[in-house]
């Protein structure tokens, strides 16, 4: 990198506020999920979302083979989902066991306790010469499950409230 170091960029990237999502996919009786913060809407019409997935994650083969993924928006009050999905499960392990979840219309895992969810079909896959791959998904189905909750937001590697001056609007 010219004029900077990779470590400087990494620090700067962590200061970009990001919502927390559970990225999930399923294929042939296997399903998995992982906590992700690298999610970005990229079009309203058609509705598209971009995800950046670290290479080698167990969710990648399922996304590739099914051509679908889901995103469940994590609440700022939900520490269980943050803990359970913060590390990728071992291949073949099902992190959804003992969690209320259902299949979306395309068969992707949807967490009942999420604030909202979207189920997407992969329309582009970009394999960068980098440590992540990009997937562009067209939102086929989505729902807001909790209109009064607030999303978890991460800044500087720590959860931060998504409120003005640290005050929730309902307080």
Topology:
Elements (H helix, E strand, L loop, with lengths): L5 H9 L3 E2 L1 E7 L2 E7 L2 E5 L4 E7 L4 H8 L1 E6 L5 H7 L15 E3 L5 E3 L4 E12 L4 E13 L8 E3 L2 E3 L11
Structural class label: mainly beta
Low-pLDDT parts are none
Approximate shape: globular
Radius of gyration: 16 Å
Percent helix range: 10-25%
Helix and strand pattern: HEEEEEHEHEEEEEE
Write down how many β-strands occur, each being a DSSP E stretch of 2 or more residues. 12
How would you portray this structure in words?
The chain has a seven-stranded antiparallel sheet, sandwiched between helices. It has a three-stranded antiparallel sheet with strand order 1-11-12, with no helix packed on it. The chain has helices spanning 6-14, 59-66, 79-85, and strands spanning 18-19, 21-27, 30-36, 39-43, 48-54, 68-73, 101-103, 109-111, 116-127, 132-144, 153-155, 158-160. It is 14% helix and 42% strand. By secondary structure, the protein is mostly beta strands. β4 and β5 (48-54) form a beta hairpin. The chain is built from three helices and twelve strands. The longest helix is centred in the N-terminal third of the chain and has 9 residues, at 6-14.
């Amino acid at each position: 990198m010219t004029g900077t170091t990779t470590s400087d960029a990494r620090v700067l990237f962590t200061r970009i506020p990001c919502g927390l999502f559970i990225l999930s996919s399923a294929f042939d009786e296997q399903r998995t999920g992982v906590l992700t913060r690298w999610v970005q809407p990229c079009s309203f019409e058609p509705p598209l979302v971009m995800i950046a997935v670290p290479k080698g994650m167990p969710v990648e083969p399922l996304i590739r083979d099914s051509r679908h993924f889901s995103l469940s928006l994590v609440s700022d009050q939900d520490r269980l989902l943050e803990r359970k999905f913060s590390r990728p499960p071992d291949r073949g392990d099902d992190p959804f066991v003992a969690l209320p979840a259902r299949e979306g219309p395309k068969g992707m895992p949807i967490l009942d306790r999420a604030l909202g969810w979207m189920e997407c079909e992969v329309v582009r896959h970009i394999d960068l010469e980098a440590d992540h791959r990009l997937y562009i998904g067209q939102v086929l189905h989505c729902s807001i499950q909790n209109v009064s909750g607030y999303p978890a937001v991460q800044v500087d590697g720590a959860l931060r409230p998504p409120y003005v001056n640290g005050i929730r609007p309902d307080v």
